[in-house]
Amino acid sequence: MDQINDMESTGISEENLRPEENEENEEDEMISDQLVQAEESWKGPELADNYVEEARTDSNDALEGGEEEGEKGEDLDSVGQPSREGSEQPKTQRIKKTMNYADRVRVLNLRRNLNQLDNLAKEKEMIIRKTRGELDACQSHIDSLTNQQRVVESEIEREKEAGNNAAVFRLQAMQRRVCVELGNEKDLESKITAILNESLLEMWKIEIEQGNFSELRNQIKQDEEYLDQQNQMQAAERLQNQKNRTSQLNQRWLAMERKIQKARDDYEHRLSKALEDAQRNHEKAVKFLKKSLGRIRDKEASKEQKNQEYMQKRMETVLSLKNNISYNREKLRTQQAQNKANFLDAQEQEQKMKETIEAQGHNVTREAFLYKRQVEFEKRKKEFEEQQKARKIEIVSQILKEDAQMEKVKKQSCLQTLKSQDKLSDAVKWRMKTWQYIKKACDDAVRTVPQKHWRSPSPCTSVDDRNFLMGTSQEIPVIAESKYREEEEEEEEEGNTRDESLAKPEFTGIWDKECSIPQVPDVGLDSKPVGASKLEKEIFSQNLEKLHSGIIRKHKVCGLEFKGCPFYSKPSLIHFKDFDIGKTYKKKMVLINAFYSINYCKLVGVSEHLKDFFTVHFDPPGPMSSGLSCEVGVTFKPMVNQDLEGEVTFLSQIGSFSIPLKCSTKKSVLALDKELIDFGTHVVGETISRTITLTNSGALGTRFQLRKAADTTHTAMVQHNVTAPPSIDKTVIVCAPVVETTTGVKKDSNFSMGRFTGDKETVSLNRSEEVIHHTPFPDYLEQLDNLASETDIIGESLRIPSAERPLEQQSREEVLELTVGKVSEGDIGPFSSVKLQIMFTPTIPGAVQADFEITFDNPDCKPLSFSATAVSVSVPVWVPNPNVDLKICMYDRLYQDCIIIQSRAKSALRLKFEVCKELANHMELLPKTGYIQAHSSFSVQLKFLPRHSLREDARKYFDVKTRVLEVPMMIMVSDQSKPVEFTVHAIVTTSDLEIRPTEVDFGFCSIHEAVQTTITLTNKAILPQEFGFVELPEFVEIQPNDGFGMLLPLEKLQLDIIFKAKRAKEYSFELTCKTEINREFKLSCKAVGVHPPLELSHNLVKFSATALNDVSTANIFVINNHVSVNQFTHSVPRVGKGAVAPVGPTSFQFLVPEDSPITIMPCVGTVLPGKKCMLEVSFRPVLCDQLIRLEAVNLLCQAAEAKAQMERKARELELQRRKEEALLTRKDGKKPSSILSISQISKHTRPFQPPNPEDISPDSEEYIAAHLSLIRSFANHFEKYVIPCLIACGDIDEKKGAENLRYNPYYTLYLELHCPAVAPAVMVTSNNGRTVFNFGDVAVGHTVKKEVKLRNISQEHLVLGYSFLNPFGSFTVLNPIWTLEEGESRNLLISFCPEENTPYFEMLEIRSGRFTLTLTLTGQGVIPTISCSVEGDVFNMGYVLAKETATATFKIENTSNLTLKYNILLDSLSPSREREQPKIPPFLASPGQADVVGTQNYNGLSVFSVSPVEGTITFKKTQEFTITFSPDHESLYYSDCIHILIFGKETIRVIQLKGAARNHIMFVEGGDPLDVPIESLAVTTSMAEEATKAESGKSTNSILLNLECFQSETFVIPATRELKVGAIRSTQFASKKNVEFNWENMQLLQLKGFTVDPVKGSVERGQTKPINVSWVPPAGSNPNQPVTGSAILNVKGDIKEVYSVYFMGRIVTK
Questions:
Q1: Per-residue DSSP letters for 797-854?
Q2: Residue 1213, H or E segment
Q3: What gap in Å lies between CA 1183 and CA 1274, rounded to an integer?
Q4: Helix axes 214-360, 765-773, angle to 10 degrees
Q5: For 246, which of 98, 337, 351, 914 is 20 to 30 Å away at the CA?
Q6: Residue 556's beta-bridge partner residues?
């Protein structure tokens, strides 16, 4: 059976195998097709020609077509499609040809297909073997089942003979099971047989295919052998090519060596020649050096004097700084003490204010808060006012600045106007003075007149020019000069404005006119071109006037306005660079028309002061279209050696434009490539040189001199940095060396690149004093004090004269270690560079710094300076890291480190490394000896292998307590007496782990559960160690992290070992713990496995977070799988290796703790073999009843305490009042009454006695309030319950209870429940916190609403959801609340509208994330029923005299179980009646139809009234209603309608009211209507007619009676009608007699068949009397013609009324 189950589980069935067989068949067919095609291609004789062609292609395109052949070779279809040419080529000739890439791919593809076919054959063979094995197993299982069936049948016969029916039933069930299994096995055997046959068939097909491709297989084998030979040949050929290539490379290398040697010889020759030249140059430089030393000494003396003065000022500054610091410190201390005193005063005032407020009985907190708010408000108000004042001041200052600027602009405009007038008037004088100046400049070119617009500033006189020259080497800085010129012009303008009040000269020169000459040319001189016509001159003069007056006309072409210059020039600037006097320079430029249409261009001229130097050649081109260009030539002949600037002016059709013109002289632009030379670290005795490049990027050469700056060489620089607080952000630097303060040096430092200027490096005295004075933080006083002390020390050191300094310092300053090279002076030409050499020869170890300066003969070039630094050392060999720290090491572990040794020596040195004898077995240095080369490093390998004998061997160097090892090591250097020492540090620790306990016994363990125990793992080392339990059995699990982790030094870790038995047996095993260094630690374990007869589907149930009063449920099963005692087929229930549990019904019982929120249904039961029982486990967290009662008592105590406190305060106030009254009475001289103290009053008050918690009722308000309080303050709670399940063999019913069953303790199952209880996110605050809402009895079809107040008591925003109510039910949520903010309360409206007379019950779940609030909704639907005393739908009030009132009553009884609320509505009082009145009357739409509301009173009062109009009718009660009829005039059509509504919605009864009014006491009713049922609003009869009728006492009316007689051939049914004559009972006519009536003219009616009975009579008051009228058609009557007649009816009452009654008879046959 196990084998069959395995086969069924693996899915071996006919349906499962068919898809695989189909896939394999398709694959076989595909492979066979490919092989057939390949075989045909090999058999085809045309393949040889293909090989020949491909071979030729390979030989021609070996490198170019490789990739294309590779792409072709990837296509497998090419194997089966060979060409059909050359069929007579033999096959041997094809093989001898060289195989190309495509042939190789074909061979590989064919080999792959054949391998696939072979693999497929092997797979089919394996399937056949497996299927045969399964078939054998199935047949053997069928034989065993057949034998078992025969045995069972024999046992059945035997038990039947014995009469054991129970055994017979059991054996019969077994027989049926065996038969079923036997049938299944036979079906399976047939399926396996079919599968085997199919597999054999496929195998045969594959073998046939393999036979078909045998010849192809042999051919492929031959091709593969040939392919191997070909590869070997190619490899040999490549090897030979490689050898040839190697020989060629060797020859090239020898040739390269010869070239290098030749180049080395040439270099040495050039070097020797250069040294000789340098020697000669040095001799020349010495001569010039002696001459310049005198000048340098003089300058240095002056500098020294200035430096001393500067240092004296610095010392005075430091002293003042110290005094300021002490002053500020005292000031801050005083301020702090004052602030502290103010703070104490404020606290005292605040305390007094609080006491005052408390004495007044006010809220102290509120008053204090209001006072603080007022203070803050006043403070903000004051700040705002100050800001407003500052803003006003700023605005006023801005306005004043703008006014001053406007006045300045006006003054300048006035000055320009005056100057222009002077220029226009004195133009001739200007021209004469200009010629005189030019003549003077030509005679004496050395000294020129300083005209403001002709002079050119030196390129080294401004910061911008210097920076520009340092950055560029190709052209002169135009931008810097223009900027300088603009600044100079502004200064001149300011000077002019300042000197306005001075006396003016006798005549003005051209140099005082600034730029007005080129701006406003002379009208008389060159204002118009020569040869212009009169019209052109007029136009030109007009345009010129417009230009002068500022009138500019907008130029538009095709709607586009032109803006900008009308002509563009190329180049935009005419610049003559580096000119020489006497030469002539020419340049051309191109003018391009940028206007939108045709334009003209004429030359105006050049600037006035440039006319003598420039000549412009311009031929006017005439009209120029847009985009056309013309050429302009400019000739420059310099006469003065100065920079010139101006412009060339042109005139176009739309205005004038100008092109700037500039001329620059030759200048020297000098720069250094670096500002600092760093020589690095060198050994004493060496000589090192560095070069610096001086570059001249200008066109003028000069002579330079390189010299060392005076008193700049020193060994160290003392710098003291004081970091100010964040608000200051300044650094004070005090330098020991002398700081140069001359003007030239400062400017030089400003122009130097990459360095800080002197202003930035040194903080001035005033600035530093200001910074320290404004420092508000006392935390930095200590830093400032330290600064002062340091400055004192520096000042004292600076005061020491040079004679009193130490000899070492003097000798150090005298030694010149940094010197200038051979080239110290010379000439530098234009656009060239010179390399200068600086030498460093160290003599004493230490740091050296020197400053150098380059001066120039050209006075316009300022000196350049740079610095040089170097460090010299004396020891040739040293260890950079003298302390080698190996950190923490473990015993028996190898640790290595590399020690670097540096050498400064110029030759190689021998080193010897020694280790002390105590550590010879633990530490080693490799190699023992070595040689370190000059100026290089040497590395030594340190190996440290600590053993456990270290503490004994190295007691001198090893500390047992701290485990620290400190070993001194030495390096012996040859020719050096002092060895090089370094120290090795290490901390040595153990690597042991300790496991406690050393042995674990799990005891008896169920296979359905896991047993857990805890062990302690301790790390004995001071290093963290990684560990892991490896090779764990499958039934053991270690947590956390699956037994892997890291232990910190000396850490203890708790590990849980979880054991889960797989079978019922005895277990004994070991657990192995390995560390990262591969050490193992063992732990012994043992246990006994138990297999219980029952099992649970889930041993662990994790409930979700459940809110209070919510329910979470889960379903589990108890399963009995014990159906057989055969232990060989499956595992059986037992304890270890004990007896097997019997097969049969097995009982269980869950022991649920009392008062727990857990419910298991059912908790006791019996499970039959092979069956299972479903259990429902519920978790409902609720608050304990005793806890709620205690909380209620606590709340009562708190309320009582609060009440007592209030009473105590009231008594205190009363006592205070009495004391005040007593004081008043004493003053008045009266005897005060006795005053009771508080203690005496408190004696009369009874103390509060807390109630007994058991006496509090669950329905009381205290209980409900306590419950709500506990819900609000409920904290999250987690409980874990382990419910034991006892198991016993047998049935509970048979033993009459579970007490008599014998439970096996080893078979006990455990159900673990995780129950997290949380506070509800939403709670109900209405209905006293209850979640059950009863709507009570509600009428069917009516709606009752209730509000449910929900409150969010959680600390988060909630999104609510609702469960689905019955869509066809009666409960509805009217306003679903979707969100609730934290602490928010909202009302949920629920309506109940029953539709049937049944009870309703629904549950509404309000979900908010993980929480659910369940509301229980109940209600009863009731059908409201009544009984009315009015029969029918019409209530007739009869006839009433006009202007009199008649009343009538009717009753309504409540026959339902519901209190009914009713409303009585009249249609005549309906608000919609007025809107319906304009409609067409009903009698016009359909004859005979009348309006519900009939005639109404003229006085506006209602004709009918009902009372009461609203109220309630309780169960089985009756309500009487009174109807009042009050007409005010005569009418027969008074009517109205009553609607009886219950609950304001449903109309349960409609009653129509009718009535008639007469002016007299008699009336006649009946007959057909002769008028409309609506009374006209117009008065039809006048008052006179009414009065005449009353006087005559007679009134005439008409009545129509239609009588229809049914007549057939056999009989005739007479037609009958009825008239009623009535008398109205009234108090108005109490003395009148009865009403009498009689008929007249009846003879004629009788002849026509009409009969009236009675003919006359009388009627009493308040009664009516009927008059019957019948008609039988006389013989011979025509049925198509009606029979008519008339009679007079006289009615006599208070008056006499005559009625003309018209009779109309008709014969009806149908």
A1: HHHS-GGGS-HHHHHHHHS--EEE-S--EEEE-TTEEEEEEEEE---SSEEEEEEEEE
A2: helix 1185-1228
A3: 9
A4: 70
A5: 98
A6: 561
Nearest-angstrom CA–CA distance, 1133 and 305: 114
Mean pLDDT in residue range 773-789: 38
Q: What angle (nearest 5°) sits at the alpha carbon of residue 258, between those of residues 254 and 260?
A: 115
d(CA 799, CA 308): 10
Dihedral of alpha carbons 1200, 1202, 1208, 1214, sign: negative
Interatomic CA distance for residues 1459 and 1513, integer angstroms: 6
Rounded to whole angstroms, how far apart are CA atoms 563 and 1232? 108
Beta strand pairing status for 1411-1422 and 1332-1339?
parallel
Give the CA count within 13 Å in the CB-facing half-sphere of 1631. 0
- 612's CB contacts (< 8 A; 6+ apart) are 434, 435, 438, 639
Whether the predicted pLDDT of 60 surpasses 90: no
DSSP 1303: B
Q: Is the dihedral of CA 328, 329, 332, 334 positive or negative?
A: negative
How many CA atoms lie within 13 Å of 1131's alpha carbon, on the beta-carbon side?
18
Count other Cβ atoms within 10 Å, centred on residue 1016.
12
> In this predicted model, what pLDDT tens digit does every residue of 415-468 receive, in sequence order?
665 555 444 445 555 556 555 655 555 454 434 333 333 333 333 333 333 333
Average confidence (pLDDT) over 779-808: 38
C-alpha closest to that of 1258 among 1182, 1316, 1202: 1182
Is there a contact between 431 and 424 (Cβ–Cβ < 8 Å)? no
Contacts made by residues 759-767, CB under 8 angstroms, sequence distance 24+? 761/733, 761/735, 762/733, 762/735, 763/730, 763/731, 763/732, 763/733, 765/313, 765/317, 765/320, 765/321, 767/730
How many angstroms from the chain centroid is the CA of residue 589? Answer: 63
Return the number of other C-beta atoms located less than 10 Å from residue 1481's C-beta.
13
**1560: nearest Cα among 1594, 1523, 1588:** 1594
What distance in Å separates the CA atoms of residue 670 and residue 748, rounded to the nearest whole number? Answer: 12
CB 49 within 8 A of CB 85: yes
Residues 1146, 1220: contact at Cβ < 8 Å?
A: no
SS3 of residue 1178 by DSSP: strand
922-979 pLDDT per residue, tens: 999 999 889 888 888 999 999 999 998 888 888 888 988 888 999 998 888 887 667 8
**1223 vs 1294: CA distance, rounded Å:** 96
Q: Return d(Cα 840, Cα 922) in angstroms, integer.
A: 48
pTM for the full model? 0.38
Nearest C-alpha neighbor of 495 from the set 523, 476, 514: 514
Helix (H, G, I), strand (E, B) or coil at 73: helix
How many CB atoms sit inside 10 A of residue 843's CB? 14
State yes or no: pLDDT of 786 exceeds 70.
no
pLDDT in tens, 1082-1131: 999 999 999 999 999 988 999 988 888 888 899 999 999 888 888 777 78
The three-state secondary structure class of 1695 is coil
Say if residues 1292 and 1166 touch (Cβ distance below 8 Å).
Answer: yes
The tokens for 388 are 């407003």
Cβ atoms of 1493 and 1531 within 8 Å: the answer is no
